[in-house]
Amino acid sequence: MNQFGLLLSALTILLVPICTVASDDSDSKSDSRGVHRTMLKAVTGDSNEPLSLYRESHALLVGASRYSAWPQLNSIPGELDSVEEVLTKTGFNVERLADPDADQLKTGITNFINNYGYEP
Predict the structure, then answer these.
(1) How far is CA 18 from CA 23, 24, 92, 93, in A?
(2) CA–CA separation, 96 vs 114, rounded Å?
(3) Using one digit for the tens of pLDDT, what is the confidence trace for 54-109?
(4) Is 60 domain-assigned?
(5) Is the CB of residue 106 less than 8 Å from the CB of residue 113?
(6) Which of 22, 37, 38, 74 could form a disulfide with 83 if both were Cys (CB 3.0 to 4.6 A apart)?
(7) pTM of the model
C-alpha cells in the first residue's frame, strides 16, 4: 500500500470513533458518555514545570455522500455537522472536504498536513 493509502486508512480509523460518539442517539445516555476534554499535566526535568504537549488541535472532516453507482448517503452532511460541532466545542479548528473526487481528496489531505501537521 502506498503512503497515501496508509494515510487514508489512518484517517478512517481515527474518524470512526468520533463519528460513533457524535451519532449516538440512545435515550439512555449517562454523564460518563460522550466527548469530554481531559487536561494532562506533563512535567520535565527537576523544575516540575508543566510541559506543553501541543498548541493547537485541527481536524479534517471528509464527507462522501454522492456516488455514481450507489445510492446517495443523504445523512452524511448532517452527521458531519454533528461531528464538527463536537470538535469545535472541544477546541478544534475544523476543515471540511465535501464529496471530493480522488484528486481533491489527495490535495485536501496534503494541504491539511502541510498547514497543520508539522507543528505541535
Answers:
(1) 9, 10, 13, 15
(2) 15
(3) 788 999 999 999 988 899 999 999 999 999 999 999 999 999 999 999 999 999 99
(4) yes
(5) no
(6) 22
(7) 0.58
